[in-house]
Design brief:
The structure is a single chain. By secondary structure, the protein is mainly beta. The protein contains 2 helices and 10 strands. The strands form 3 sheets. A 4-stranded antiparallel sheet has the order 6-3-10-9. A hairpin with a 6-residue loop joins β7 and β8. The N and C termini lie far apart (54 Å). The protein binds calcium ion (2 copies).
Length: 181
C-alpha cells in the first residue's frame, strides 16, 4: 500500500481531492468469448471472422456480393500455340465464378478484345467449406475455349477485399471482389 499512500500524497500535493481510482488487474483469463470485438477492417478480426459495421462476425454462412470486375487475356495464343480465333482474331472473353461447383456469376462476352471490364455483380451464400473457382473463357460459336481458371479461398479474397492477379495458368489476369452484403 506504500504506492497508494505515495499517490495519495501526490494528489494532496496537487490539490486533488476525492478518491483515487485504482484499475483492477485483468481477471485471470476466463476465456470470455462473448465479448464483441470492435474492428475497422477485416484484418482486425480473427482468422474466421470479418468486420461488419464495426464488429467482428463469423465470415461463414453469410451472403456476399461477388463482383467480376475485369479480365485481361495475357497471351495472343492458346496453350496449343494457336490464335484464340480463326485468322488471328482476338478472343471474346467472358468470366464466370463457381461456388461449390455451381455457377453463381457469369459476365457477358466482350467482343474481340484482350481486355474486358464488366463490373458484373452476383450474390451467393458462402459456407466455411465452400469452394470458389474463377474462370475466363473465349466465347466461340460452339465450344468455348477455356482461357484460364483459378481455385481460391473465398475467405482470403474477402479478407483482402478482392483478388487482382493472374489465374493459375498465367493466360488471364482478373480482378474479383467479394464483400459481405
Ligand atoms: Ca476461340
Ligand atoms: Ca474473336
Amino acid at each position: 500500500m506504500k504506492i497508494l499512500q505515495t499517490l495519495a500524497a501526490a494528489a494532496t500535493a496537487l490539490g486533488v481531492s476525492g478518491c483515487i481510482i485504482v484499475t483492477p488487474p485483468p481477471s485471470g483469463g476466463g476465456g470470455d468469448t462473448s465479448t464483441i470485438a470492435e474492428c475497422a477492417a477485416h484484418t482486425d478480426c480473427d482468422a474466421v471472422s470479418i468486420c461488419v459495421t464495426g464488429q467482428c462476425v463469423l465470415a461463414a454462412g453469410r451472403e456476399y456480393a461477388i463482383t467480376f470486375y475485369d479480365a485481361t487475356v495475357n497471351s495472343e495464343t492458346n496453350p496449343d500455340g494457336e490464335s484464340w480465333d480463326a485468322l488471328g482474331d482476338a478472343p471474346d472473353p467472358f468470366g464466370a465464378v463457381l461456388v461449390d461447383g455451381q455457377q453463381v456469376l457469369g459476365t457477358t462476352a466482350a467482343p474481340n478484345t484482350y481486355a474486358a471490364t464488366w463490373e458484373t455483380v452476383a450474390y451467393a451464400t458462402l459456407q466455411a467449406t465452400s469452394t470458389f473457382d474463377v474462370y475466363v473463357y473465349d466465347e466461340d460459336l460452339a465450344d468455348h475455349d477455356l482461357v484460364d481458371s483459378g481455385a481460391f479461398s473465398w475467405l482470403e479474397i474477402v479478407k483482402k477485399g478482392g483478388y487482382s492477379g493472374e489465374l493459375s495458368g498465367g493466360y488471364a489476369s482478373v480482378a474479383v471482389f467479394v464483400d459481405p452484403r
